[in-house]
Amino acid sequence: MIQESNTPLWKLDGAKPFIQIKNITKKFGEFTAVDNVSLDIYENELFCLLGGSGSGKSTLLRMLAGFETPTSGQILIDGVDMADIDPWDRPINMMFQSYALFPHMTVFKNIAFGLKRDKVPKKEITERVNAMLKMMQIEEFANRKPEQLSGGQRQRVALARALIKRPKLLLLDEPLGALDKKLREETQFELVNIQDELGVTFVVVTHDQEEAMTLATRIGVMGNGVISQVDEPRDVYEYPRSRFVAEFVGTINIFEGRVIDAQTDYVKIASKEACSKLFVNHSINCAPKQKVAVAVRPEKIKVSRKKPDLAYNCLYGKIIDLAYMGNLSIFRVKLESGKIVRVTLPNLVRENQNPLTWDDMIYLSWDNDSSVVLIS
Amino acid sequence: MTRDSRFLKFSAILGFIFLYAPIISLIVYSFNKSKLVTVWGGWSIKWYVELFNNQQIIDAAMVSLKVAFITATLSVILGVLAGYVLSRMGRFPGKMVVSGWITAPLIMPEVITGLSLLLLFVSMEKLLGWPSGRGITTVIIAHTTFCMAYVAVIVQSRLAQLDDSLEEAAMDLGAKPHSLFFLVTLPIISPAIISGWLLAFTLSLDDLVIASFVSGPGNSTLPMVIFSKIRFGVSPEVNALATIMILIVAIGVIAAMWQMRKKENVL
């Protein structure tokens, strides 16, 4: 197969999606867990479904695995409709949040379970399981029971068990949720390497945006059973398309205001909250005087004691809170309107001769291309 | 704290004396040399020797063991099925009623269970010709009806604790529902099944009331023989027999508890 180098499949016209989710709805009684979701996921992707609890992300994953039947809609995997295919016949494996290791079996038997069900010859099972144990660096635990393993070791066993059948698609439900922070970071990169090496398509469900950022080729942000935005991690962070996405992913300052001038290459907004006119250098589809919101990330904001020579995007306020985090400092600045703005500054020097402190009056500003206008 | 703990110790000792003094005196008197039950005449094991020469008691013991063994096995099979259905059917209309029905034999007075089963067996014999007369078969059926309920409750509570994703993981890895049950569910709940079996065995061995209703001539269980002997005055032989039964039941209960403990450690 000839592929244009480095262009991801989802950017190519006419590329065939590996998973096609078409207008899927799932209702539990009156409650709609997943609401008319359509989504294409391509081969070799590491796709993250990011959402809070009750967002419908796990239900969507369980429908892919076959544990839930959609109320309406269609799921195609590699062009095959999954409607009448039982979980045990799907070319999919799943890694569970609780790992779901069989407590009465050794690590070896846990990993071999899937191959035995497929009646793979005994000799081949031993070879493949041993190779997998080696790859996951858990050879020494082969004869232990799951209860004798640490959280990180269990996580590896669960991953090994899910990968042993060489599935076309691996579903991971909060794969790093049960690990402590340090182990989590190591495992994140490992997971990406494994995915790269084996060329399996991964769909990961997580509530942790940092996890989604580091793992994903693309992120689908879910809330209330709907996918609000599907984009590459950078775009989800820098160009959120709605207030929900902007606020869910990372922290962001949002100023409400009204459009005073909208052209093809810029929008001017008057915001009482910001006590300033705001300028955004991208266009939106809006009417004059329409209510909109301008969103700026805390790290995009510049701080100065002197008034910068700017007609737009220039705010003035008092520092009411500051926190030194080591690599950066967080400031909370109260504007005249009472609005509190969050600013983060990197700590570039060890000792600042004239550090910003409580009750200092400062000017906040940002570049025209640093903010986004949100309509919904 | 020390004052409290002294009080606690005192109540514990009092409670245990209340519970076990009669049993201990029974065990001690089973080694009594004297023919009179209430008079101590020195240590001896002659009542045990006599007990093993009493064919009536040996026969009754064999009947009881046979009944208990088959009852426990049948109860486990039916009880596991019932417990599995109750915990895995999800919500369906009338679930409360169905689970109530299954556990009703637990609280039903034994006299009523015995009487109703007797009536059932008699009318079945008239209509169907089976079971012909009353004997071991009818006792087994009767014991299974109430022992099954205990097993069902134990298995259901074990299954309720079980992580659903274990069964889903097995399915996901290619196990069809029937093989999933035998490969994953059954081995994981096996401690509950073993303790259920032991409990059913002990309950069946102990039962007097229901067996009295549904047993026939020549098929008396051990408790029935003891009860009928006591009506003619307590003999030291019965003390010896009771001691042996206490031993068997104690072993059964301890084994069941040990299995439960082991199960708790697994998950």
TrEMBL record, chain A:
Q: Which GO terms describe its biological process?
A: putrescine transport
Tagged with keyword Oxidoreductase:
no
ABC transporter domain sequence ranges: 19-249
Enzyme class of the recorded protein, top EC level: translocase
Task: Write down the chemical reaction(s) this protein catalyses.
Answer: ATP + H2O + polyamine-[polyamine-binding protein]Side 1 = ADP + phosphate + polyamineSide 2 + [polyamine-binding protein]Side 1
Q: Name one Pfam family in it.
A: ABC_tran
The family database entries (InterPro entries) matched by this protein are listed as: AAA+_ATPase, ABC_SmlMolc_Importer, ABC_transporter-like_ATP-bd, ABC_transporter-like_CS, Mo/tungstate-bd_C_term_dom, P-loop_NTPase, PotA-like, Transp-assoc_OB_typ2
Family, according to the entry, reads as follows: Belongs to the ABC transporter superfamily. Spermidine/putrescine importer (TC 3.A.1.11.1) family.
Q: What is this protein called?
A: Spermidine/putrescine import ATP-binding protein PotA
| High-level lineage | Bacteria, Pseudomonadati, Pseudomonadota, Gammaproteobacteria, Alteromonadales
Per the record, the gene is: potA
TrEMBL record, chain B:
Give Gene Ontology CC terms: plasma membrane
Q: Where in the cell is it found?
A: Cell membrane
For the ABC transmembrane type-1 domain, which residue ranges apply?
61-256
Q: What topology does it adopt in the membrane?
A: Multi-pass membrane protein
Q: Can you cite a GO biological process for this protein?
A: transmembrane transport
Does the keyword Transport belong to this entry?
yes
- List the transmembrane segments: 12-31, 67-86, 98-124, 136-159, 180-202, 238-258
What is the similarity comment for this entry?
Belongs to the binding-protein-dependent transport system permease family. CysTW subfamily.
Protein's UniProt name:
Putrescine transport system permease protein
